[in-house]
Amino acid sequence: MNIVRTALACAAAAVAMGSAQAQVDQVKVWAAACANCHGTNGHAQPGMEALAGKNADDMTKALLDFKAGRKPATIMHQIAKGYTDDELRAIAAYFAAQKK
Predict the structure, then answer these.
(1) Cytochrome c domain location, by residue (predicted)?
(2) For 24-61, how does the pLDDT look when each residue is reduced to its tens digit (9 = 90+)?
């Protein structure tokens, strides 16, 4: 019986760890969608805005402003509407954590 309990506890821990890993990977997936304009991991080509290492609060504000239509854009207002506010915060935090 103890073996069953131990096995169940290990399985539960593995699921929890897998879930946490999935969340990290999901943010990377969201951020990868930005690569077309802002470059891989926020390292943009000349002429585009680089996001790597920028302030997360500033990026979050800009993303939320795009989403709400307070900041003019050609496409960002449409893209931002596809994410929840928390997802936009996570994306901003991801780019802020990238080295310039």
Answers:
(1) 13-99
(2) 589 999 999 999 999 999 999 999 999 999 999 999 99
**Position 35, amino acid:** A
The SS3 assignment for 99 reads: coil
User: Cβ(52)–Cβ(42) under 8 Å?
Assistant: yes
Distance of CA 85 to the CA centre of its chain: 11
The whole-angstrom separation of Cα 2 and Cα 87 is 41
CB 90 within 8 A of CB 59: no
How does DSSP assign 25-61, residue by residue? HHHHHHHHTTHHHH-GGG-PPTTS---TT--HHHHHH
CATH for 23-97?
Answer: 1.10.760.10
